[in-house]
Amino acid sequence: KLQVAYRSDQTGTWVDAVWDLEFTEQTPLDDTIEDELSVSGDKAFRTLYQCLLAHAANQQDESIWAILGENEVPIKSLVAVLSFFVLAGKAKTANVQQRVSGLHAASLYLLLLGIPGSIATKVFHEVLLDTCSDLTSHCWPEDAGKKRKKDIMKSCQADVKRSKPQRREPSEMEVDGAEEEEEEEELNFSAKDLLNIRDAVVLLVQSLLRLLQTFPLKDRPQSAGHCTVCWMLTVVLFLHRDITELRSVPEMAFYGLQLLCSPKHGDQKEVRSSNHYPNSMVEKSEFRSHGAQAVGMLTSQMESTDYARFIKWLFNFSRSSKMVCRLFSVDVVMVLLEQSERSLEECPDPEFSCFLPHKFLIQNLLFDRRMDDSPTVQGHALACLAQCLELPSLNATRAVHSLFSASEKTHTLVETHIQATFGSEARTRFFGRRYTFLETKENLALLLRRVKDSKINVRKSALQTLVGLLKHNVIPLSWENLATLSERCRDPAVSVKKKALQCVGELLGAKPECSVVQKAWLQGVVPAVVDPENSVQDKALEALDQVLLSQVKPYYAGRHLDASQRLTWDLLGLLCNECLNLSRYFSRAFTIWSKQNKFTQTLIANLMSHTEADHAAGAWLLLSKVVPSSPRLPYGKILDAWDSISKDVTGTTCCHILCVMGDIAVHLNEETKDRIVADLMSWLKTFTLSLEVICAAVETLYQLGRSEDIKQTQAFLNQRCGELVSVCEAYLAGIILREKGAQNLNEELMVRRNPSLAWCQEELPASLPLSQFKANSLPTRVRAHGVITLGKLCLQHEELVQKYLPVFARELELGTEVAVRNNVVVIMCDLCVRYTNMVEHYIPNISACLRDSEAVIREQTLIMLTNLLQEEFVKWKGPLFFRFMVALVDPVPAIASLCEYCLLHLLLKKNPEMFSQHFIECIFHFSSYNKHKSYNKFTESEREKVRFSLKGAQQREKRFRIYRFLLEHFTDAQRFNITVKINQTILACFADEELPLDADGADILSETFKILSLKEMKLQVISTPAGGAAGEEAEEENMATMAKAVLLVAQKKVVSQVQKKAFIENTVPLIIGLKSLLEQKRSPVLRDLMAYLQVTMQDYRDEVKEFFSGDEQLAAELEFALKTAEKEREMAEQMDSCSLTADTRTPTAQVREHHIHRALDAEGNFKISLCINYIVSEFPTVSEGVLVVLLSPQCSTQGSPVRCRTLPVVFATPQPPRPKPLSTRLAYSDR
């Protein structure tokens, strides 16, 4: 190796290149020299190391530097050659020999560096020292010993799949996902290879220890810090290896940390590894996890007093301005909670003993992060909070309980002793404060809000925390809490939906007997079957299969059902009763399963065995879904079951039985069919069945009479259904067409006969349904069912649609019965699907119901119109869009929220330009302004105009809620274009006097300036901070975040220049003209114009004169307004930032009293100034200005010619008693 150093220095070119690159890149050697090195292997390294070690140990011998000089070995060349091997071994693709040689070369360099005289001979180089110190983490394979050779190919294939980029929503990108590194080519190492690398690692660690014993790093804090991190990584790297094989490496690493803490290497407080290492942590979760484990191992060896000091430091560290530090503090807390809790007696210092309990870690470090500025930290803290409930520490579990449930239990013996001995303050400091009932309710409310947070990561973590609290009975299993959980199964984000499905399944597994949990599981999982995302569908189907289908076992009367089977039949029972609204989704699951051939003969037989049990309703439910897709069925058993229960059939179970009979009808003989038809006809003619059963019975009747010959089928229907129609018609005619026929009305029979007409598919004489709308004495329920019947008949006969559509529209306008009008809305929307052209003219009549006096009709109309717009049966024509906007400000919050959901998640996706296209017209429409030549020109009745008008000052808040909603969902391009359009269509029209500046015109112009002043109107790329969201700093390790921030800054600069140019060229001339016009007319709108300019010019306050060079007076006025606003803002910030100081008064009070004293003393009012303390203590809310006015009648505001008058102190309401001493009042801070 020395010969190589000598030969490499012959030209000097290669050596100079290495030193010029500061040992950051590997410079290739000559091919001949490199071949010689590969032949020599690492034997030459070991020989040279032993020689140098002998000289270093015996300081009496000749200096090694002199020996090297005598043998013409240049030190500079030797260091360059060693660096060549070090950098080669550091490469990701390095083979075993390169790694071993690199470790040996690093050991040689560290050994040379520790020999006296290394500084003088210029051996030391900080970059090379750091590289050699960190070489262990690069040379030791990360997955050594974890994989077997037979899994190599499989692992490689998996890595290839993982390396493919997956489609993910932008809002779903987590911190860890942004830092994924490129997968390196996997190398295989044998046991012998690992042993060779391990021996070289040991040699390097020993060399570094020898260096720290002799070579001080006191003046090199960066190298000391880097060595600390390297030692910590060495601990982590070999922490979980085979102890019998690698026992010495962690011991040496800990000894190295001990050496670094000696005074030789600097201030112990600065080098303290447990404090220094967290500050060096990066965002990647793997590094954080390993780092937290290392910190936990260090702290486990500490004395309790030192441990408490570290916890105090960690408490401050958790409030760092760096997001990654706060994130890492949460990881460290979780590691510390896994350790045994320390006793208070182990720390005699009462100042630090309060940091020992686990309760402090949970409440003061972990739970406090729920309010963190960074969504990533929030989510991580909430996820860890859920894990605390799984810890073996009973005190940790109790600490979580105390956060969400106030307990009236007495204090523990230790708490009681502490309180009796040292007082309640000491008890609080030791054990933390007890949360009140209201505080725990607020904590739970905050968690429920986090479940609906705008950030995906936070929502997922909050879901996990909520499930943990419910599983461990920390919070009650109320429907409010469970509904929040099941609602997230329909979250807009796919990952949240999957997490919610996992959570409800986890909760059901923990609480299978709870009926409320069962209902929540059904409400969450069953609708997910029709989710647009296939992966969510699959997860829901898998859950339903595992819980329902797979648990259907044979039933024996004498055998008890196990827990899983009881759960299955309980869930099916809920589907038959309380959760009937899920039937359509449940049927969809069986449609999918039928294509997968999941319905076996065994399943059918097992279900049939349950038809005689107490839970037979659930069995018939499953049979009604399974039978249509099963090729072979036990028809005899089904007919036996039919015969045994046909005399006592009611409700939902009867519908399922009838459904099964209809499905097997094609396999029955004629005799059996006739018998069943006779049974059905006898039931139907009595009209004692419920409406649902009548519908199912008619459908089954049709299935029994259907044949391949259409004429035979029609003949069967004419005979059987004709009988039913005749009975219904005779009864209805006797009630409706006869005078005083309603006196003999049986409402229940009337309701059951009315729909039967439609189900039997027969025409009804026109006089009968029309009478439903005439003034009569029929009950509302009868009239409502009559309307539904007429609607069903209209769906079958087009001529009835033409005849009765005007009747339906008239009923919507003049009808007074809620049920009737609600049904008319449903009918007209259904007719629109089949007869779109005919019903299109009546859409304004339907949309008018969005302002109906009844909330149920408004909600129904909103849902039906949204469906029609989604399927494009209806277009955004006329006033429809603006009526939807009015629904956004509905007095019922649920309807307003539903409207927002429909617009954003259903309709805006189909037409992204929808909001921007209608925005300008919204300004004219909601203010009822129709003097513009292009806008607000569609036809509306006066009644509809009044109903949907938002004109006037009292409706201003509603109008601006709509404007803000629209603008919030604009793109920046749409914001820019809409600003230009406002200039052209509104401001220009008033500036050119095309629109009169009368009262209505002034209102429109004032409204326009206020809209332009909204913060939502500003371009997001300009208003968004360059660093991204609060708390999400661009760390040096996160290059993706830095690149994004740099790109955002550049984009912001370009867009700002474009906007500035457009404002100067297009807006400024209009503003100058409008200002002149408004001044001439002395219009109050001038105030709004100046307010708009003040808001707009905040970003260009130094360029006002450049912008308004055409109007110097306007520029001067605007500059003055901006300066005044800036002073007011600074004063407000100063007042808000004041806090308690050593003085018993707040800084605000001190400043206020100082200024008042100065003002009063200048006037010489000595007696008045003596009263100031009394006034401030008695009236703490009184401002400085009021005091000045009260105490000095002659004072005047600076710069103002108006003088103030004395104002009497009059309180409109009785004032609450206040503590008179000022120090007492200021003893509490206002959080």
UniProtKB/TrEMBL annotation:
Residues 157-184 are annotated as: Disordered. GO terms for biological process: cell division; meiotic chromosome condensation; mitotic chromosome condensation. It is found in: Nucleus. Gene3D superfamilies: Leucine-rich Repeat Variant (1.25.10.10). The keyword Nucleus applies. Transmembrane segments: none annotated. One of its GO terms (cellular component) is condensed chromosome, centromeric region. The keyword Transmembrane helix does not apply. InterPro entries: ARM-like, ARM-type_fold, CND1/NCAPD3, Cnd1_C. It holds the Pfam family Cnd1. Keywords: Cell cycle, Cell division, DNA condensation, Mitosis, Nucleus. GO terms for molecular function: histone binding. Residues 159-171 have a biased composition (Basic and acidic residues). Residues 820-973 form the Condensin complex subunit 1 C-terminal domain. Residues 172-184 have a biased composition (Acidic residues). PANTHER family: CONDENSIN, CONDENSIN-2 COMPLEX SUBUNIT D3. This is Non-SMC condensin II complex, subunit D3. It comes from Cyclopterus lumpus (Lumpsucker). The gene is ncapd3.
